[in-house]
Every structure is written in C-alpha cells, then in structure tokens.
Amino acid sequence: MERMTIQLDMPTRIKPIADYVIRRPGIPRWWDPVARPHVAVIMRNPMNGGDIRYFLSKCGEKDSKGRTSLDVGDIASLPEGTLLEVRYSATKANLYKLEMVGAAACWRWINRSQGLQGFETESLDWNYRVDSSLESNSYMMA
Known about the structure:
single chain; disordered C terminus
C-alpha cells in the first residue's frame, strides 16, 4: 500500500478517490435545517436515467441541549453494490459503494461533491461525477 509523503522538494502522490475503502462512512449526527444533512441509497431510474433516492435518515428527538439528532437506518444490512449518498451540508456530500473485502463489508469512496449545485435543485446529480473507469452498473444494486 502506497503512503502519501509530503516533502518540500518532491511532488506529492495522491491515489485516486476510488481507491479509498473504509469500514464505515462518517454519518452526520445532528439535524440542521440550513445544512439539511441526510443519508440515502441511490438507484438508477430506468425510465429517465436519473437518480432515485431512498432516504435512510430522518429528524430525531431533541436532546437536553436543544440539538435535534439525525436518525439513520441500519446501513450494515444493505446488500453489496449499494450506493450510499451521505450529505453533510448544503455544499458537501460523499458517494460510497458497499463492497466485500475478504469477509468484511466495506465502503469504497466513489466521489464527493463540494460547492453549490444550483439554487433550483435539491438533489445532487452523480451522473457526471462518477469516474468513467468505474463499471457502468456502479449505480445498480447487486
């Protein structure tokens, strides 16, 4: 496994984003009405080729400090090949794909979105963000 080394006189080598595999993605803990965080399964719409989101998160209960939790369903029981969108704020989201690494279920970091999509859209369009080197069925659930 190649490690990133920072040296003043040598160029930094960074692996492509699709090579990062983690055991569990970072999930937002708190609801914020401005940031609108969420966790959703992404599937391809066979009718128009767009994305369909099935939300696994919802606003929870307020705690003693007045914060509202973000309740998220069990992502550990999803099938291999599932695409998971984790939105942290109005400007930042990550896309992961569930893969088996040996006997362990892991999430491959497919892509990220940073910046506003546009004021007229609520959802991210991952079609143009996914690297073309990934399989064409990367949006389909196994």
